[in-house]
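User: quick one, fold this
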Amino acid sequence: MARTTTSDARRQDTREKIELGGLIVKAGLRYEKRALLLGALIDLSQRLKSDESERARLLAIGAEAFGKADE
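Assistant:
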């Protein structure tokens, strides 16, 4: 039973990582350096913690991008 749970957790983790990588591609950042992407994400994380309006602004941009993908 524990082996199945561990296997399921690993499978879920792998799927999430693939999906997150897909977001990088969708954002047009496929060919950027990994250090730049990580720096941008760290900076974003810090800004989101202190600025709720920035969170709302970026959420709207992302929701619009997903909506366009559905068309």
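User: anything notable?
Assistant: Residues 2-26 form the longest helix (25 residues).
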